[in-house]
């Protein structure tokens, strides 16, 4: 039996969460077409014959730390490499930015094997176009391996699992074999609601949103939950609620349907919108809202 932990690092919007979901085989981390959608370290468990790999999805590393929230996200991503057996550095084919170099520098300092996942290779018309890019990556760092993949299409994921499995130590499972995520039900609900908000709302509003659980009652056939959507200004509250409550209703309905599908039970979900001024730049507010410091 081999089992171990892999920290997944990369810049924002490079496809880390999509890749973790694909490697686990089900959705454990929310996904949206916006940078910095992931705000917490999310654990997803891959179970295979004689193998268990715990993937730690992390917030995207970025150099511009304007608010206290950005600093907390960067610290959360960096601290995820402590005690892991390998680091998976996710990069996007055809693109290399300063934040990619930042993520690589953090990964290289972990003192464990670093494997590069060259993601979104389905964007390449000809696979031989990847050869010079792989050579450039090899010049940037002495990666233990470089594996071209497509998280959205599932290309070459078996190869990536095999490469990572070679770096996992022998030992017992870290989680029960039927467990696929390392977080609790409340976290699942808040992230589901936040994902729907992020996908529906435009411009910068998703970055001023946070979601918490006010009450939770879980029984075999029914889940009852009250979620609070926190914003920073009254004007934002009106946008989230929408005309006649339409936006909030759409978010609640979409989240409820996904939760019912994932949990296999009836879900009664209520959402409320409240204002907490400047929460994203207030360390005390961030701690109260569950962000790690």
Describe the structure in brief:
It is built from nine helices and nine strands. It is an alpha/beta fold.
The description of the largest β-sheet is: 6 strands, mixed
Order of helices and strands: EHEEHEHEHEHHEEHHEH
Proportion of residues in extended strands: 15-25%
- Evaluate the radius of gyration: 20 Å
Helix count, DSSP H or I runs of 4 or more residues: 9
How would you state the average pLDDT, rounded? Answer: 86
Structural class: alpha/beta
Quickly count the domains: 2
CATH architecture identity of the largest domain: 3-Layer(aba) Sandwich
CA-to-CA gap between the ends?
34 Å
Pick out its properties.
Rossmann fold; GMP Synthetase, Chain A, domain 3; 3-stranded mixed beta sheet; 2 domains; single chain; 6-stranded mixed beta sheet; 9 strands; globular; 293 residues
Secondary-structure blueprint of this entry?
Layout: E1 2-9, H1 16-24, E2 42-48, E3 51-57, H2 68-79, E4 86-92, H3 98-108, E5 114-119, H4 130-140, E6 145-148, H5 157-165, H6 185-200, E7 210-218, E8 222-231, H7 234-241, H8 246-263, E9 266-275, H9 283-288
Parallel strand pairs: 1-3, 1-4, 4-5, 5-6, 8-9
Antiparallel strand pairs: 2-3, 7-8
């Amino acid at each position: 039996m081999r089992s171990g932990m892999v920290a997944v690092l990369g810049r924002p919007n490079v496809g880390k969460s999509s890749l973790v979901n694909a490697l686990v085989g089900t959705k454990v981390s929310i996904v949206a077409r916006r940078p910095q959608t992931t705000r917490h370290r999310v654990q997803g468990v891959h179970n295979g014959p004689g193998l268990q790999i715990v993937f730690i999805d992390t917030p995207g590393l970025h150099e511009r730390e304007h608010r206290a929230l950005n600093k907390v996200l960067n610290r959360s991503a960096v601290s995820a490499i402590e005690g892991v057996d390998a680091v998976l550095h996710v990069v996007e084919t055809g693109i290399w930015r300063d934040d990619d170099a930042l993520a690589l520098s953090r990964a290289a300092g972990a003192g464990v094997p670093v494997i590069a996942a060259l993601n979104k290779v389905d964007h390449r018309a000809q696979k031989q176009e990847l050869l010079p890019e792989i050579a450039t990556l090899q010049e940037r760092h002495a990666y233990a391996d470089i594996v071209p993949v497509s998280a959205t299409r599932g290309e070459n994921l078996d190869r990536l699992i095999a490469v990572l499995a070679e770096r996992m130590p022998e030992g017992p499972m870290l989680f029960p074999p039927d467990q696929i995520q390392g977080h609790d039900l409340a976290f699942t609900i808040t992230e589901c609601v936040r994902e729907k908000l992020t996908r529906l709302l435009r411009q910068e509003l998703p970055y001023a949103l946070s979601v918490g659980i006010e009450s939770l009652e879980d029984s075999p056939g029914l889940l009852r939950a009250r979620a609070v959507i926190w914003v920073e200004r009254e004007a934002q509250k009106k946008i989230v609620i929408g005309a006649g409550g339409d936006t909030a209703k759409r978010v609640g309905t979409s989240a409820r349907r996904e939760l019912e599908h994932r949990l296999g039970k009836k879900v009664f979900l209520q959402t409320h919108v409240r204002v907490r001024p400047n929460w994203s730049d207030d360390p005390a507010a961030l701690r109260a809202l569950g962000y790690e410091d």
